[in-house]
Amino acid sequence: MAEPKLDESWKQAVGDEFDQPYMQDLKQFLLAEKQQGKHIFPRGPDYFRALDLTPIDTVRVVILGQDPYHGAGQAHGLCFSVQPGVRIPPSLVNIYKELQADLGIAPVRHGFLEHWARQGVLLLNSVLTVEEGRAGAHQGKGWEKFTDRIIHAVAETREHVVFILWGAYAQKKASFVDQTRHLVLKSVHPSPLSAHNGFFGSKPFSKTNAYLEAHGMTPIDWQLPEDPSQP
């Protein structure tokens, strides 16, 4: 794990974490995995892509995921998002369905969510790397502690952020967020196993924009460009 070239706002907020023993241990773990010939996703320059695209002083919304997609070519550092040309994963298909039901926005034919991230939607996984074909392989190696620090930094330094917490894992991870200071939207996870138990009909996108506008902020343009190469 090369020294991260983080946006300056994140360096100031969480940069000291890279000097902590747990992060040094994580770095050694990742190096050892690569030396054994294991394929790690996303690629190294994309480990911190969510932070690179969404500086802390721009964060208006936080969506939490668990760990990266473990298929080749999928993960690129944003939760729920896949690279252009990759089949849209089932959970994201359901997110698009709810977006259409909530705001009338028809699904695009790709799963590349950088347009959201560039507007202040922090698409943060709890664990930032995974081994190919082994879901959850890097859980418990230190990433969770680092991403906890990120969430704390947002919750403590920003005002009126919307935390969208899909599923029990995300809700537990951000359980400390002050709901008198921020909006916390909870529902079951959008995966096909649970989406019909409360994700569909939860209207997270319209609720987010109503809250942002009520506090004098620009709403999120949830309409993704048809061409994923467009910002």
Radius of gyration: 17 Å
Number of domains: 1
Kindly state the percentage of residues in helix.
Answer: 25-40%
Q: Runs with pLDDT <50, length 5+?
A: none
Tell me about the largest β-sheet. 4 strands, parallel
- Global structural class: alpha/beta
Instruction: Give the end-to-end Cα distance, rounded to a whole number of Å.
Output: 28 Å
- The SSE string, one letter per element, is HHEHEHHEEHEHEH
Portion in strands: 5-15%
Mean of pLDDT = 96
Specify the oligomeric state.
Answer: single chain
Number of strands: 6
Q: What overall geometry do the principal axes of the alpha carbons give?
A: globular
Helical segment count: 8
The assigned CATH architecture is 3-Layer(aba) Sandwich
CATH topology: Uracil-DNA Glycosylase, subunit E
So, the CATH homologous superfamily?
Answer: Uracil-DNA glycosylase-like domain
Assigned CATH class: Alpha Beta
**Biggest sheet, strands in spatial order?**
3-2-5-6
Keywords: Cytoplasm, DNA damage, DNA repair, Glycosidase, Hydrolase
Domain Uracil-DNA glycosylase-like: 52-212
Catalytic activity: Hydrolyzes single-stranded DNA or mismatched double-stranded DNA and polynucleotides, releasing free uracil
Active site: 67 (proton acceptor)
Question: Quick recap of the structure?
Answer:
The chain is α/β, with parallel strands linked by helices. Helices cover 33% and strands 10% of the residues. It contains eight helices and six strands.
Overview of the structural elements:
It holds the Pfam family UDG. Its main location: cytoplasm. It catalyses: Hydrolyzes single-stranded DNA or mismatched double-stranded DNA and polynucleotides, releasing free uracil. GO terms for molecular function: uracil DNA N-glycosylase activity. Belongs to the uracil-DNA glycosylase (UDG) superfamily. UNG family. With 231 residues, the protein is of the alpha/beta class. It has a single domain, classed as 3-Layer(aba) Sandwich (Uracil-DNA Glycosylase, subunit E). It has 8 helices and 6 strands. The chain has helices spanning 8-14, 21-35, 49-53, 90-103, 114-117, 143-157, 168-173, 204-214; strands at 40-41, 61-65, 121-125, 130-131, 162-166, 183-187. The strands form 2 sheets. A 4-stranded parallel β-sheet has the order 3-2-5-6. A two-stranded antiparallel sheet has the order 1-4. Helix 7 links the parallel strand 5 (162-166) and strand 6 (183-187). The longest helix is centred in the N-terminal third of the chain and has 15 residues, at 21-35. It is globular. It starts with 7 loop residues before the first helix and ends in a 17-residue tail after the last helix. The mean pLDDT is 96.
